Amino acid sequence: MKKIVLLGATGSIGSQTIDLLREFKNEYQLVAFAFGHNTEKAQAIINEFKPVIVASSFKEALAPLKDTKTTTDLLSLISLGDVVINALVGSVGLKPTMECLKQNKPLLLANKESLVMAGPLIKDYLDKGSIIVPIDSEHSALYDLIKIHGSKITDLYITASGGALRDYSLESIQDAKKEVVLKHPNWNMGAKITVDSATMMNKVFEVWEAHFLFGFELNHIHALIDRKSNVHALVKLSDGSVYAHVAKNDMHLPIKYALMYPESTSYNECNKCFKSVEEAISYFGLEELDLKRYPLFNLTKQDLKEKPFYSVIVNASNEALVKLFLQDQVSFGGLQDGILNYLSKYQTIKAPYDLEHILEINQFIQEEVLKQC
Ligand SMILES: NC(=O)c1ccc[n+]([C@@H]2O[C@H](COP(=O)([O-])OP(=O)(O)OC[C@H]3O[C@@H](n4cnc5c(N)ncnc54)[C@H](OP(=O)(O)O)[C@@H]3O)[C@@H](O)[C@H]2O)c1
Known about the structure:
- It is a single chain.
- By secondary structure, the chain is of the alpha/beta class.
- It has 15 helices and 13 strands.
- Strands 4-3-2-1-5-6-7 form a seven-stranded parallel beta sheet, sandwiched between helices. A six-stranded mixed beta sheet has the order 12-11-10-8-9-13.
- The longest helix is centred in the C-terminal third of the chain and has 17 residues, at about 310-325.
- The protein is globular and about 55 Å long.
- NADP nicotinamide-adenine-dinucleotide phosphate binds next to α1, β2, α5 and α9.
- The site of NADP nicotinamide-adenine-dinucleotide phosphate has 29 residues, from α1, β2, α5 and α9.
């Protein structure tokens, strides 16, 4: 039995992981999990899986729980698992990610914000042999393609659906209401990532995620629109040929693939070799990304080595502004402009590049955003 620690068990990825743990209960044992505020859902998971211990950052969320040991220390769960699944949302996921790496636990990672905030620190661990199996669908697809094509790959392509506002006029987007933005055309996900999909910030994060996970330079990582979200990634090889990863838009597939590590079996439905990227684009009906519609995607052009806190500032201002957008305190246009404003104000911040300063800058920026609204 593989012992599983699941952080973010009550969320979208967490719940789909729970589905798989239920389906494969003779193979996996949920020994511990963490959640935020959803006590009711946490109690249901406790009743069904009987974990040894449950954590939440919020004491009041733990108080009503019955029939289990509880703690507010999320990090204390990590040593209990054979693998850890980090499905927390936002910057709260970073410390658990770093603790897993420190303890040399295989990490099945959905929390892309960890890599956005501390990519170079995480990459140091990967270079020394630490294991991260990505759960993000595009990166799961790339992980699978890289296993096959390895060092022959020169360029990575990830796809985006275009988000909820992809067919709205550019003028109407500025004042789009959260009810509209939260209606993702293809995926049923948590609120933050659904908003990030509409602004295309999610794809900015995913380009950075791929950069640090797989070691490709930013100008060799590209994004295309797939309106159906079936083509998750493509790779171009040094001879110009292109391979795609195609699967149903169902997060159970990449989660299952990660859970099976190291014996993961590919779920790619496409074994066709294309002569060029153009041929693949035309075959699948993919589209180029329109930078007028998605101006935030330009953030991927910054050389992160020149400004190591750049992605920390983007992540922090985005996280706080998305919170405000979901509380109707900032408009959709204000959310996008706000990120660029905070970036231009703080991107020259200088500090030693380490975990302590990343967390400090993250907190400072988030407080600044919340204070000024
Ligand atoms: N959803 C997807 O299909 C998908 C796809 C690819 C990647 N991802 C990535 O996966 C991660 C999770 O996304 P999601 O959509 O599953 O998010 P979600 O539905 O919002 O779930 C987030 C989870 O984190 C918990 N949480 C939030 N703040 C917490 C805190 N301060 N302390 C402890 N737990 C806390 C929540 O607990 P409560 O609900 O109990 O408050 C919930 O269990 C994100 O990084 C996202 O970008 C998601």
